[in-house]
Amino acid sequence: MTTHDQSVSLPFTPLIIIGAGRSGTNALRDALTRLPSFATWPCDEINPIWRHGNLDWPNDEIPPERATPAVRKSIRSSFQRIWRQQGRPDFVVEKTCANALRVPFVDAVFPEARYIHIVRNGFDIVASARKRWRGELEVPGLPYYLAKARYAPLSDLPHYAISALRNQLAIKFGRQEHFDSWGPRFEELDKLASAPLEEIVARQWAACVTSSDMAFEQINTSRVFVLRYEDFTHNPFDVLTKITYWLGITASETQLEEATSSIRASSVGKGQDVAETLPDNIKSLLVPPLRAHGYLDQE
User: Fold this and answer.
1) Is 202 exposed, middle or buried (0-12, 13-18, 19+ CB in 10 A)?
2) Contact assessment for residue 198 and residue 282, using Cβ atoms and an 8 Å cutoff
3) Does the structure show a pLDDT above 90 at 131?
4) DSSP collapsed to 3 states, 63-78
5) Cα-to-chain-centroid distance, residue 48
6) Model's pTM, two decimal places?
7) Which residues contact 211 (CB under 8 A, 6 or more apart)?
8) Which H or E run contains 15?
């Protein structure tokens, strides 16, 4: 593990939400940051901050040795900057789904971080994420990209602008059925260009969950809170209460109720058709992480 530069201690705790795309990371982050002790960036994700200095790495599985002193300083400075801008909260919350593929790298940058690992049923993920890959759900508009660009290192902006434009135009003009890439870029992604979309999405989810599980086996359990999306959406008040207790934060019943008031369980189980229709070879990709998190035990 990379040694932390003790000369730059943080006056807050980074709270890193780890989860594959469409796993409820947004809902969890939003609920937490409605409480007084938490804040985050006023944009969706900050992958450009995490990848600064490592744009040459071909995917999001950045190894911990790439957390050089310059890279650590850059990322930690970005967290300190948002901490000051957002009123100096006790916790700076961050959720970038690509971090599910590089937890050891994240931990090399922030050895003082606390983690919430949120996992959702892989069949529901395939049903939801494949729509994102096809651009069928809401397509982010210019304000979305401008908000993210505001926090991206200036020298890296051309890289992200060209990538986003290429993807959007290819879908809009029908040159391809889905984006070249959506969400975390796992190592095998480029080899799957001709594979069925369901296989790509299944492999992406499995890679994220498996990679995170392996990483958290090496991190002190006191720093990790493991959570299932289904439990969170069915009983958000109780789950958020447990999280605040784990973090040593006191929140009133009213604050917790307001923070979780918009959370619904309406999307749970929508992958049932996927579970019934996926080919066995693709379905088998989901089995190990599903079993690891107790989903198959329910059958």
Assistant:
1) buried
2) yes
3) no
4) CHHHCCHHHHHHHHHH
5) 13
6) 0.87
7) 61, 100, 101, 102, 103, 186
8) strand 13-18
Q: 142 vs 269, which has greater pLDDT?
A: 269
| 25, two tokens | 């990371």
CB of 193 within 8 A of CB of 164? no
Handedness of CA 275, 279, 282, 284 (dihedral sign): positive
- pLDDT confidence of 180, banded at 50, 70, 90? low
Coil, strand, or helix at residue 266?
coil
Two tokens at 206? 């499995």
CA angle 201, 233, 210 (to 5 degrees): 35
- Nearest residue to 101 via CA among 220, 25, 214: 214
Angstrom CA distances, 77 to 69, 71, 275, stand at: 12, 10, 44
Closest CA to 51 of 67, 30, 33, 29: 67
Task: Judge contact between 289 and 213, C-beta under 8 A.
Answer: yes
For residue 251, give the DSSP letter: -
Query: How big is the chain, counted in residues?
Result: 299
Structure tokens at 130: 């494949």
- Return the structure tokens found at 13: 């705790």
Q: Which amino acid is at 84?
A: R
